[in-house]
Amino acid sequence: MKIxxxxxxxxxxxxxxxxxxxxxxxxxxxxxxxGPTPVEVFGYALASKAGITCLEAGFSGNRITLYIPENAAKxxxxxxxxxxxxxxxxxxxxxxxxxxxxxxxxxxxTDEDQSDNYPNPNTTC
Length: 125
What we know:
It is a single chain. The chain is mainly beta and about 120 residues long. The chain has one domain: Gyrase A, domain 2. About 15% of the residues lie in helices and about 45% in strands. It has 2 helices and 8 strands. It has helices spanning about 15-25, 70-75, and strands spanning about 1-5, 10-15, 25-35, 40-50, 55-60, 65-70, 85-90, 95-100. The strands form 2 sheets. A 4-stranded mixed sheet has the order 1-2-8-7. A 4-stranded mixed sheet has the order 3-4-6-5. It starts with a strand and ends in a 23-residue tail after the last strand. The model has no long low-confidence stretch (mean pLDDT about 90).
């Protein structure tokens, strides 16, 4: 799972196996450790949630959690749907934009392992 944050825009990208795991378990989490000692941890998670109809987010204990509707999490792996998005007003005049996407193979050169990414629809071969 990858995360990109720019201002009030949070985007997660998931590989094929992560989308499958989300559908089966309803939860994914990653963390980045800073420090030597004491080690500080920044975490990010994705969880399915009953009773919601679109993406939501929360922040607690140094972890961002993006919430996806429970049924959407269960069926997403078998769908062609690329992702989900939502804008949430977090305070008067302040909006948090949320985006959750399947991660496609990059078309340019990269050293990153992309063997579990979705095939890029823009590939011509």
